[in-house]
Design a protein that fits this description.
Layout (H helix, E strand, L loop, with lengths): L4 E7 L32 E5 L14 E3 L19 E5 L3 E5 L5 E5 L5 E5 L30 E8 L5 E4 L6 H8 L17 E6 L5 E6 L14 H5 L7 E7 L8 H15 L3 H4 L2 E6 L8 H12 L3 E3 L8 H12 L26 E6 L2 E5 L1 H8 L6 H13 L2 H7 L7 E4 L2 E4 L3
Length: 425
């Protein structure tokens, strides 16, 4: 079974907590803090598996969670970083955030490997928080939480050429005659339920990958039938070959069929036809060529879209078609079509980040949060302007109000990571 669209749950690992401990050795009864840091949580990593061409395995396994980092220990012992979770997918897989459907990553290269969600950072042990005025801190950071999202995996096949057309017009037969592919062929509608790929070599030795896209029907762009599942595979192709039954053997009008297919492609993606050169394979001329003149007049003469009469079953004129396709490929970029990332993780955006306030001991408050830590990292508190920005940030983010709700009094101490200051209104 071919599967090209699944929804799965991902969660990266939590960072290990920092440790609170104090050095205790013979002859050193009052040693300083020596709590170790927590280890990093496991990343969620996706890796391309060249031997795989379906997302079938994800139908049976929907939840993926990386392990958590190890907590810090005594004697400055650092907790172990967690093992990353590597998930293998076929080449051409796109990862989307499920709610917004924005693209997180496009795994289009062979053997590509990419971190999708990073594991949480390990918390610092109390060894980092000693100051001249507070030499025995009973405080250590908690490890950061991992990131969790539902995502959609979409497989968009990577092919240079896409064969499009209504069911039973001869796409599978054409692919089998010009390539090493062996698609199932029969005289039934929707015989092809999954795209087939084949490597084609023309008489001049030029090679390209051709995909037989399953037969489209009216309303495919609206999701009728398996429309969206089929149409997504056309997006990566560089050249479109419209295969039509030029004989009209099933009572279809090949001219109208091409316009219908073009309409579905445009409604699915308005730029689809603008970006891709087209060529028409007028098939089944061994049965009848009564519509060939109309096709040439309507598309080649009026619109400049080359029409090549062929008989896929009889192996007639196929090299002329392949030469025409190769010529069109010369006009387009050799770079693969890549879908750029759009998704921005809210946990990486300071305006969405939360903070926590903990009273470590009487009159000593700790503020934690990714956004607060980042803000300190890019703010110079040695300048008047930087200090003013810092004070404005604390008020705008509600940190001052939260400290007051926690019961802080004037003159008591606030710690934000490595920064320590006394609170005054």
């Amino acid at each position: 079974m071919f599967v090209d669209n699944v929804k799965i749950y991902l969660k990266s690992g939590k960072g290990g907590d920092g440790h609170v401990s104090f050095r205790r050795e013979k002859y050193i009864p009052n040693g300083g803090p020596d709590g170790g840091d927590g280890g990093r949580g496991g990343h969620i990593i996706f890796e391309v598996d060249p031997g795989n061409n379906t997302l079938m395995s994800f139908r049976h396994h929907r939840h993926y969670k990386a392990t958590d980092g190890e907590n810090g220990g005594k004697k400055r012992c650092h907790g172990k970083d967690a093992k990353d979770l590597i998930i293998k997918v076929p080449q051409g897989t796109i990862i989307r955030e499920a709610e917004t459907r924005k693209i997180i990553a496009d795994l289009h290269e062979r053997d590509e490997k990419k971190i999708i969600f990073k594991g949480g950072k390990g918390g610092k042990g109390n060894q980092h928080f000693a100051t001249p005025t507070r030499q025995a801190p009973k405080y250590a950071e908690r490890g950061r939480e991992g990131k969790e999202y539902w995502v959609i995996l979409e497989l968009k096949m990577i092919a240079d050429v896409g064969l499009v057309g209504y069911p039973n017009v001869g796409k599978s037969t054409l692919l089998s005659m010009v390539s090493n592919a062996q698609p199932k062929i029969a005289n039934y509608h929707f015989t092809t339920l999954a795209p087939n790929l084949g490597v084609v070599t023309d008489k001049y030795g030029k090679q390209f990958v051709m995909a037989d896209i399953p037969g489209l029907i009216e309303g495919a762009s609206s999701g009728v039938g398996l429309g969206h599942d089929f149409l997504r595979h056309i997006e990566r192709t560089k050249v479109l070959v419209h295969v039509v039954d030029a004989s009209g053997s099933e009572g279809r009008d090949p001219v109208q069929d091409i316009y219908d297919i073009q309409k579905e492609l445009t409604e699915y993606n308005p730029n689809m036809l603008k970006d891709k050169p087209q060529i028409i394979a007028a098939n089944k001329i061994d049965i009848s060529d009564e519509n060939l003149e109309r096709l040439v007049e309507e598309f080649e003469v009026k619109q400049g879209i080359k029409v090549v009469p062929i008989s896929a079953a009889g192996n007639d004129n196929l090299q002329d078609l392949l030469s025409g396709i190769a010529d069109l490929l010369e006009t387009v970029t050799t770079e693969p079509i890549v879908f750029e990332p759009e998704f921005v993780d809210e946990l990486d955006d300071p305006k969405y980040q939360k903070f926590t306030i903990t009273e470590i001991e009487k009159g000593y408050f700790a503020v934690e949060g990714v956004g607060v830590e980042k803000m300190i990292g890019y703010t110079s508190l040695d300048t008047e302007k930087g200090l003013a920005f810092f004070q404005k940030y604390l008020r705008e983010k509600g940190i001052i109000d939260a400290l007051e709700e926690a019961g802080i009094q004037e003159g008591e101490t606030v710690r934000i990571y490595n920064l320590e200051f006394d609170y005054y209104k």
